[in-house]
Amino acid sequence: MRTYATLGTMRRQRRRRLYLRAAAAVGFLLLLFLFAVSGYHVGLAQNRVEVERAEATLEEMQASRRRLLEAAAASSQREGRMRERVEAVEAAYARDVPNGEPKRLLDLVEQKIAGGVPPERLALILGHAGTERACARGTETKRLTARTPIATTVDNAVTFADNRITVSGEGQMSQDAQGVPEPWFDPAQPVKLHFLTINGDVDNAEGRLPLQHAVVLGDREYLFVARSTDRRGIIELTAQDCAFP
Fold first, then answer.
1. Does 186 fall in a domain?
2. What is the structure's pLDDT at 120?
3. Do residue 9 and residue 70 come from a single domain?
4. Residues with Cβ within 8 Å of residue 171, at least 6 apart in sequence
């Protein structure tokens, strides 16, 4: 009887151990399942955070791109308006500011007014100016010795209009091939002529030869043309006497 009781007890203990092992295995599997499910949800949450962060970054980049495009458009509009203003100023300058011969005449008028000539007289002169001149027949030609820094000729003046206009002048000294100064002026360089009238007025003309200049004396206008000659150091002056204005 004891033997049967002992065997029954052992069987019950064995079954209990099996049950316990099975329960432990099931619990372990359940725990693994819970961990897996929890990890899955954590991964989903992390992915959701990353997606939201990426979407926020994308929206910020798109907003920055829109701002850049708007700034570029505004800059282009400002550039267009500035270009229009510059073109308008250039057009106004070209329209209102003279150049060439008109500018030279305007500068001469301003110079005369600054020198004390009444604007009314200048207006009268310009009003009577015409394309045809009433000039005396023939011209008067004389030769002038031009001064240089190393050739200061005392008698280097010539007179015109019955000694009422005295002309003198100077130029830049010439140099030989070695750069040694020569005692005459260089006709290829600008010269300066001085026109002194009997009234004490002095006009100056400066430039390269041939050079033209006009001197008004009373009701006469003397038109001068200065040219270089074959003789070294000599300027040829030709004057024509015309009615003025």
1. yes
2. 76
3. yes
4. 146, 147, 148, 185, 186, 187, 189, 190, 191, 192, 235
Q: Is residue 105 part of a domain?
A: no
H helical segments located in 97-220: 101-114, 119-128
Q: Does 141 fall in a domain?
A: yes
Domain interval for residue 54: 1-97
Tokens of 74: 């505004």
| 201 vs 56: CA distance, rounded Å | 86
Q: Residue type for 53, please?
A: R
- Residue-level pLDDT at 116: 79
pLDDT on residue 183? 85
Residue 116 lies in a domain: no
Q: What is the average per-residue pLDDT within 4-29? A: 74
Tell me if 168 sits within 8 A of 146, measured CB to CB. no
Are 181 and 92 found together in one domain?
no
Could you give the CA distance from residue 168 to residue 192 in angstroms, rounded to a whole number? 9
Angle, alpha carbons 166-172-178 (nearest 5°)? 150
- Rounded to 10 degrees, the C-alpha dihedral 14/16/19/21 comes to -70
For 144-188, the pLDDT digits (tens) are: 999 988 876 656 899 999 999 999 999 999 988 888 888 899 999
pLDDT class of 43 with cuts at 50, 70, 90: confident
- Max CA-CA distance within the chain? 179
Stretch among 46-50, 66-70, 164-168 having the lowest mean pLDDT: 46-50
